[in-house]
Task: inverse folding
């Protein structure tokens, strides 16, 4: 029962969480803007018709990352824990989503057969 009564979340922690999540939203918008640049990584002679699959993987990853971080942050606030540390998880998840899209683009161009 030691964890039953927790102090309420402080205003500074709440404001830091909101600011970090807003910056993460701007970073997500920026990272999503770099997704179409996958096409510039390949020469014009290769078949790039499977690149929309890589775009979808990257954009879906970015959306899922932001949604998960939002849900985790809400859970941390409701459990009266530090929420700003949870909001910081958005940045590595955004990078991971972009890199996963890049790896999908590399596999889509080099491995999938051209008809």
Result:
């Amino acid at each position: 029962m030691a964890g039953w009564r927790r102090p309420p979340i402080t205003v500074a922690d709440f404001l830091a969480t909101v600011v970090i999540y807003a910056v993460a939203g701007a970073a997500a918008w920026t990272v999503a803007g770099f997704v179409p640049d996958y096409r510039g990584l390949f020469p014009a002679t290769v078949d790039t018709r499977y690149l929309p699959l890589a775009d979808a993987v990257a954009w879906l990853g970015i959306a899922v990352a932001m949604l998960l971080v939002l849900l985790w942050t809400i859970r941390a606030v409701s459990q009266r824990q530090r929420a700003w540390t949870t909001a910081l998880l958005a940045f590595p998840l955004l990078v991971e989503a972009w890199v996963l899209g890049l790896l999908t683009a590399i596999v889509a161009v080099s491995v999938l057969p051209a008809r």
Summary: Residues 74 and 103 are 31 Å apart (CA to CA). The first helix runs from residue 11 to 34. The radius of gyration is 19 Å.
